[in-house]
Write a structure and sequence with these properties.
The structure is a single chain. The protein is an alpha+beta fold. It has one domain (18-99): YhbY-like (Translation Initiation Factor IF3, 2-Layer Sandwich), CATH 3.30.110.60. The protein has four helices and four strands, in the order H-H-E-H-E-H-E-E. The chain has helices at residues 3-7, 19-29, 45-58, 73-84; strands at 36-38, 60-65, 87-92, 95-99. Strands 1-2-4-3 form a four-stranded mixed β-sheet, sandwiched between helices. A hairpin with a 2-residue loop joins strand 3 and strand 4 (95-99). The longest helix has 14 residues, at 45-58. The termini are far apart.
């Protein structure tokens, strides 16, 4: 990943998602189509910017990791989550699901935390 793509990570909330919340988000993501693709150039500044913008607009997105990408879905998901301040809520095939609550007007209401 380029230096500039790593420069400005958005902070994640201090409290991670629990299993119930992750399952809920995976259920919501089921009907979504991927909005960003990672290709042969990997995760560069433009990809990180596109993911940030998509998360700002939708909160929950799918990212497709193409076969010619230099990263697998696990690496790509963790790098994107770190760079955008989001959470990886699921991975299926070559798809990674990311969630980040909108700072001002959250659209998705998560179930209450367990315990």
């Amino acid at each position: 990943m380029s230096e500039q793509a790593q420069k400005k990570p958005s902070p994640r909330p201090n409290v991670p998602l629990d299993g119930k919340q992750r399952r809920y988000l995976r259920g919501l993501a089921h009907s979504l189509d991927p909005v960003v693709q990672i290709g042969k150039d990997g995760i560069e500044r433009g990809v990180v910017a596109a993911v940030r913008e998509a998360l700002r607009a939708h909160e929950l997105i799918k990212v497709r990791v193409l076969e010619n990408a230099p990263l697998d879905k696990d690496e790509a998901g963790e790098l994107l989550a770190d760079a955008t301040g989001s959470y990886v809520v699921g991975k299926v095939g070559r798809i990674v699901m990311l969630y980040r609550m909108h700072e001002e007007k959250p659209k998705i209401v998560l179930p209450k935390r367990n315990g």
